[in-house]
Amino acid sequence: MYEGRGQIQEAMVAHCNALLQEPNYVPCKVSIGALLWKMGSKALPVARSFLSDALRLEPTNRSAWYYLGMVHRDDGRIADACDCFQAASMLEESDPVESFSSII
Hints:
By secondary structure, this protein is mainly alpha-helical. It has one domain (2-93): Tetratricopeptide repeat domain (Serine Threonine Protein Phosphatase 5, Tetratricopeptide repeat). 73% of the residues lie in helices and 0% in strands. It is built from six helices and no strands. It has helices at 8-21, 26-39, 44-57, 62-74, 78-94, 100-103.
């Protein structure tokens, strides 16, 4: 909601507050990592940390792989970026069109 309005700081606060309630909530970790990536080079190490933590908890999260690739790319780690983009692409290809839980 805040991101859509360009309110990056407010979005960051909202996601951090959510993590205080649920420290292992992967979507918040990915969102924070993506926001930090968008903030530029000084925030890249922290963005990498959030995204790596998200992948530790949920190794098949393609958004986390994608944003980690963007972080690596912007940090000049091209080989690492390629690996991340490849993982994101493979996960996207294997993602079912409809969630398995909605079928049951």
